[in-house]
Amino acid sequence: MGHTPRSVLVTGGNRGIGRAIAEAFVALGDDVAVTTRSGGAPEGALDVRCDITDADAVESAFAQVEAAHGPVEILVANAGVTHDTLILRMSQEAWDTVIDTNLTGSFRLAKRAAKGMLRLKRGRIILISSVVGLLGSAGQVNYAASKAGLVGLARSLARELGSRSITANVVSPGFVETDMTDVLTDEQKQTIKAQVPLGRYASPAEVASAVVWLASDGAAYVTGAVIPVDGGLGMGH
After folding, report:
1. Any domain includes 191
2. Which residues of the chain have pLDDT under 70?
3. Please, which residues have CB within 8 angstroms of residue 127's CB and are 6 or more apart in sequence?
4. Which pLDDT value is given to residue 183?
5. How far apart are CA 130 and CA 114, in angstroms?
6. Amino acid 76: pLDDT
7. How many domains would you assign to the chain?
8. What digits encode the pLDDT tens for the residues 30-56?
9. Host domain of residue 145
């Protein structure tokens, strides 16, 4: 049997983990749309401009995706930002920006996606968190709080939407080889690797494979789960 294309939306899909996720769904033959603020979707994906901190922009993005691919069946909320500094130096703006993008942005996306999924009586909501969300990280109280919040968001969605065959799960990556980690010094990278039982960073494709699995028929009975892709860094949390 051939693969029936599904309508997939990946936010922040122009680089790093988001791009790898979008490319993985394109490779499966799905109808993939990617939201970015500046463009640059991978080949084969619909390029949609969207700032997820703007509710009207989110509504407009979904209208564009639905017109092209039909109702979104798989939402991957990946777009996120960091604004790192110690708490005594952290401005209100640095807190608000990270929470509004990473946590409230995911709420806006999930709420809008759920409308279509409830009509379809099926769907997959996958939120991209971070090992930092449960492990904590000095200098990242805003980021860690936003990523921890995604767990409560997903688990509540799992309870609200489960009766309609809609699952909600979290993928929690550890350190991944992306533009965001390339800025670290070699010394910093070695220190991080020393804490990871597998002794290396993840590739974006390894995170993407967990997302693709959660969207598959094989994961139909998995909901409210936090799937760590962190080389063992966050064990026990």
Report:
1. no
2. 1, 180, 237
3. 77, 106, 110, 150, 153, 154, 168, 169, 170, 171
4. 76
5. 23
6. 98
7. 1
8. 999 999 998 889 999 999 999 999 999
9. 7-173+203-229
pLDDT digits (tens, 9 = 90+) for 134-156: 999 999 999 999 999 999 999 99
Report yes or no on 192 lying in a domain.
no
Q: Residue 14 domain-assigned?
A: yes
Active site residues: 143
74 within domain boundaries: yes
Mind giving me the DSSP string for the chain?
-PPPP-EEEEETTTSHHHHHHHHHHHHHT-EEEEEESS--PPTTSEEEE--TT-HHHHHHHHHHHHHHH-S-SEEEE---------GGG--HHHHHHHIIIIIIHHHHHHHHHHHHHHHHT-EEEEEE--THHHH--TT-HHHHHHHHHHHHHHHHHHHHHGGGTEEEEEEEE-SBSSHHHHTS-HHHHHHHHHHSTT-SPBPHHHHHHHHHHHTSGGGTT--S-EEEESTTTTTT-
Q: What is the pLDDT of residue 180?
A: 66
Q: Which CATH number covers residue 121?
A: 3.40.50.720
Give the pLDDT of residue 10: 98
